[in-house]
Amino acid sequence: MKTNSGLQKPATIMVIFGGTGDLTHRKLMPALYNLVYDKLLPENFAVVSIGRRDKTDDQYRNDVYEALKKYSRNKIDETQWNKLKNIIFYMKFDFTDMSGYEQLKKTLEDLSSKLSNGCGGSCNRIYYLAVAPEHFETIVQGIQLSGLASNHDSWARLVIEKPFGKDLKTAMALNKKLLEVFPEKNIYRIDHYLGKEMIQNIMVLRFCNSVFESLWSNKFIDNIQISICEKAGVGTRGEYYESSGAMRDMVQNHIIQILSLVAMEPPVSLDTDAIRTEKLKVIQAIEDFTPDILRDNVVFGQYGRGIIDGETVPAYREEKKVSPNSTTETFVALKLHVNNFRWAGTPFYIRTGKRMAIASSEIVIQFKPLPDILYFKDRLHLQEPNLLVIKIQPNVGVFFQFNTRNFNSHKDIVSTKMDASQINRDAGNTPEAYERLIYDILRGDSTLFSRWDEVEASWKFADRIIEYGGKMNFNFPNYDAGTTGPVKAFELLARDGRKWLNI
């Protein structure tokens, strides 16, 4: 691959810390394989996976191959697999041992020279921290001490997974350390939810359709609901979840990011910073949670024993590495307001929980009802609301509910759903979130990644609610696995004359 000057572009090397971990095998390697499959990886590209286990390159590649057979959206094509296999390398070292980073530096220099056909020069680098959050600072320190972040004629980008800190204080300390080594523009705080197809489609739906954007305000919208419900429990993540809970695991990052996209003003351009700035304004406009608002508008829950798909499942307190007296929440429901000119008075209802009756992530926009006159003056004609439903997973698509005449009768009004789903099984699978996010990292597009001021604002919001929960003496468990959550979550909407909508 040549530039206009005739010089070869710098090689790009992706270094994965935690190369033998679950995230790498389930998400990162399948994403890289599918990028190869779709011809979206640079030609002079390589992957260096770092782990503590004794493995040769071939042994590690075999492990990756087995993972691809389980988790890749595309079936294994041997030609495409060979392309990926030949650029995967394994390096054993304990990333807490600072001496290992000098060896890593030499490995990257040698590999860069090979990829550049001996032309020399630095290589572009992606440092992907697929490790537990407590190791972030250690690895960044090793990168700093060994000079691995210093590239004179190429770039070095840092990718970190959530959670970004445990609260505002720890997030600020971590961010300070990262900024000592990498500039903000080269820090990619990954939130895989933002890579999902329908999350990216929110802006397109709004800003490419006057029929929606012209109605997208408190004048025409009655309420907005964001629900992320899971059938799964905490599984093997009990130790992590005990220090996290649903607020830190889902609300502070995924849900607040979705909320900001739904409620943002039109950006002045599609540039990364223009979009991020409008998202930030939404988070900053969320009403302050006073003690009275916290009491009346926040519901915490924890699942007990129950039945999921015909099988009995344990209570949260019976999961591995979970305290038998745990007060960690596995469910949160919130009512909040975005106090700006567009949204003042319109409630946003948020719900997320584990071991729910259904596995579904969706955004429901409910439009205001018409006056009870004309067709709806007769009580026999029940007015169903107009709904725009953005389905994120497992189904992916857009649904619109509207009223029309029942052509099999003379008078009846019926509710009809228009399905504008983007899934076409004959057209192949849609890209996974990590494929799109890795592709954006390679291109230097950080639109789908969180800027520090967004993270800071979301922690200010979340900390108040977490602090409130920590002071409460909850009677947990308060909902059975396989149900739709605590009764109080339904009372939260019933007080307003509304209900949770599952479409």
Chart the SSEs and their pairings:
Layout: E1 12-17, H1 22-37, E2 45-51, H2 57-71, H3 78-85, E3 88-92, H4 100-115, E4 124-129, H5 136-145, E5 156-161, H6 168-179, E6 187-190, H7 197-207, H8 210-213, E7 221-229, H9 238-242, H10 245-263, H11 272-284, H12 291-297, E8 298-301, E9 303-304, E10 306-308, E11 311-313, E12 331-337, E13 347-353, E14 360-367, E15 387-393, E16 397-405, E17 413-419, H13 433-443, H14 452-471, E18 479-480, H15 487-494
Helix pairs in contact: 1-2, 1-3, 1-13, 6-14, 10-11, 10-14, 11-14
CATH class of the largest domain reads Alpha Beta
Mean pLDDT: 89
CATH architecture of the largest domain: 2-Layer Sandwich
CATH superfamily of the largest domain: Dihydrodipicolinate Reductase, domain 2
**Number of E-type strands:** 18
> What's the overall geometry?
globular
Number of helices: 15
Structural class: alpha/beta
Q: Major sheet: order of its strands?
A: 8-12-13-7-14-15-16-17
> Roughly what fraction of the amino acids lie in strands?
15-25%
- Terminal Cα span: 49 Å
**Whole-number count of domains:** 2
Q: Measured on Cα atoms, how large is the radius of gyration? A: 25 Å
Q: How many strands, what sense, and barrel or not for the largest sheet?
A: 8 strands, mixed
* Share of residues in helices: 25-40%
Task: Summarize the entry for a quick read.
By secondary structure, the protein is α/β, with parallel strands linked by helices.
Characterize the structure shown.
The chain is α/β, with parallel strands linked by helices. It folds into 2 domains: 12-161, NAD(P)-binding Rossmann-like Domain (Rossmann fold, 3-Layer(aba) Sandwich); 194-494, Dihydrodipicolinate Reductase, domain 2 (2-Layer Sandwich). Helix content is 35%, strand content 20%. The chain has 15 helices and 18 strands. The protein has helices at 22-37, 57-71, 78-85, 100-115, 136-145, 168-179, 197-207, 210-213, 238-242, 245-263, 272-284, 291-297, 433-443, 452-471, 487-494, and strands spanning 12-17, 45-51, 88-92, 124-129, 156-161, 187-190, 221-229, 298-301, 303-304, 306-308, 311-313, 331-337, 347-353, 360-367, 387-393, 397-405, 413-419, 479-480. The chain has an 8-stranded mixed β-sheet with strand order 8-12-13-7-14-15-16-17, sandwiched between helices. Helix 1 (22-37) links the parallel strand 1 and strand 2. The longest helix has 20 residues, at 452-471. It starts with 11 loop residues before the first strand and ends in a 9-residue tail after the last helix.
